Amino acid sequence: MPRAVAVRRVRSRLTPWLFLSPWIIGFLAFTAIPAVLAVGMSFTNWNLRFDPQFVGLDNYAEMLTDDYRFWSSLRITGIYLALSVPIYMALGLAAALLLNQKVWGIRLFRTILFLPSVLSGVAVAVLWLLLLNGDAGAVNSFLRSLGIEHPPQWFDDPNWAVPALVITGLWTVLGNGAIIYLAGLQNISPTLYEAAAIDGAGAWTRFRSVTIPLLTPTLFFMLLTTIIAGFQVFDTAFTIGTGRGSGDSLRFYLIYLWEAAFRDGRLGYASALSIVLFVIGTGLVLLLLRTQGRWVHYEDGN
Questions:
Q1: CB of 131 within 8 A of CB of 92?
Q2: Regarding the domain delimited by 59-295, which CATH topology (the fold level of the hierarchy) does it fall under?
Q3: Which among 15, 211, 182 has a CA at the least distance from the CA of 106?
Q4: 249-285: per-residue pLDDT in tens?
Q5: For residue 278, which of 32, 124, 224, 286 sits 20 to 30 Å off, Cα-Cα?
């Protein structure tokens, strides 16, 4: 084989790996290797003041049997997921249906709706702290004008803190979800709606029998990403929860993990918390993946 041909073959094989190398290096350095180290650290009692000491499953035993904050943060995260996932998905779809209309200026409305999605979580938290202030906030002032004498204290009330955070997240999540739903809606062929209309199907029947079945792949994607995002709540809750009268009601799982690692210095225990979160999240995602065949319909019939 001529040398030039051999060089070209080697170059053609190495070129894809060369372009992939930045991603591979980043994945190894910031995901794979830290994940392996976290598993090992979860079996140690390391708090930076002395060398790591192997303690076996003690961190997991303490977490499950003697740590009320673990269960409290898990419960708060679960409540947030139960409230936010259906609300975000339903309102995101509703917004997408409105944005899918062919009216003048619709592109401008799409841009306006999406803009809050690119804002900093801290900036959003500060904005909604002012809007949902129990005494002088714009929301409570509006509610009082409607005759509600004692509106919720929102973030200062443990019973309303998580619902208030759901409202805060809605402002940024709605635009992002609506854009994804909109892409799914625009992939549905108009001829299907025309055929349904010829058969006498009304607007609700077309939505139920055409839109929803063909949109199930997008719905499934949004379900997965919304659940994963719910497990990752941190910046907004941390900014709002610091020093608030709501006590532990905004101590989400990631916030408790951060406190264990960087406030208490218990890196081994925090690693165990991260492993448990990974197991819970992975188990939930796998469960959803196993059920998708029952309700998700793809165009190829699978």
A1: no
A2: MetI-like fold (1.10.3720)
A3: 182
A4: 889 999 999 999 988 888 999 999 999 999 999 999 9
A5: 124
Reported pTM: 0.87
Residue positions counted in the chain: 302
Tokens of 103: 């009216």
Question: Rounded CA gap, 147 and 137, in Å?
Answer: 16
258: tokens are 């951060």
What confidence tier does 231 reach under pLDDT thresholds 50, 70, 90? very high
CA torsion, points 270, 227, 166, 246, in degrees to nearest 10? -20
Q: Where are the domains of the chain?
A: 1-41, 59-295
Q: What is the DSSP letter of 207?
A: I
- DSSP assigned state of 134: T
Can you tell me which residue has the tokens 């598993």?
Answer: 39
Positive or negative: CA dihedral 63, 69, 71, 76: negative
